[in-house]
Amino acid sequence: MEVRDDDQVLDMEQAEAEPEEPVEQVTEEPEDEVTALLQELEESKEKQAEYLDGWQRARAELANARKRFQREQQQAYTNAKADVLVRLLPIMDDLERAFGAVPEDLSDAGWIEGIKLVLRKFDQLLKQEGVAPIEAAGQEFDPYYHQAVTHEPSETVPSGHVIEEIQKGYKVDDRVLRPSIVRVSSGPLAEPEAEAAEKPTGEEEEQERA
Fold it and tell me: What is the pTM of this model?
């Protein structure tokens, strides 16, 4: 009969008492599944960027369309107002010509003062709408603001400047409602001596022919 010593018996009891630690089993995902997930993530990012770009484009187009509509609406209003103002200008011309022809003995009449008041109100209305007369007399001729009916010599007005305004012109800001009708200076007449000096004499003509 085999006799075990106490140390061996103790080791065996401890070994039976201590449970064995479980061995962890490491499971690895297949590489194909990881690659598929990464590809799906990239596709999602691309779609997200595409949707964001499309939304931003649509938003910009809507903002531009709104601004364009507002500009067109404002332009239509400005054109309509200009058409009305242009039709009123001849009435202003007639009133001014009528007052210019009133005899002095009637200038203080009550009914004349009443019509003058109407003219002042008319003029105030045009100013409120931004209408202003175009400067003409003495100004340098500008084809955008002035319409020339004659070019004539003048001893007092420099060449290319307005001698006289025949019909008053009007503008709104920089837009011309009606150009000023004017006479334009072509400068002073040439002196007869200067013209004769410029013309060649008979001897000079023969020398030129020779």
Answer: 0.58
Look at residues 125, 117, 109, 171 and name the one whose alpha carbon lies nearest to residue 144: 171
133, 146 Cβ separation under 8 angstroms: no
Q: Which CATH class for the 35-129 domain?
A: alpha beta
Closest CA relative to residue 92, chosen from 114, 120, 112, 111: 120
- Superfamily grouping for domain 131-190: Head domain of nucleotide exchange factor GrpE (2.30.22.10)
- Pair 105, 115: CB distance under 8 Å: no
Residues, the chain: 210
Contact between 149 and 166 (Cβ < 8 Å)? yes
**Over the chain, what is the mean pLDDT?**
80
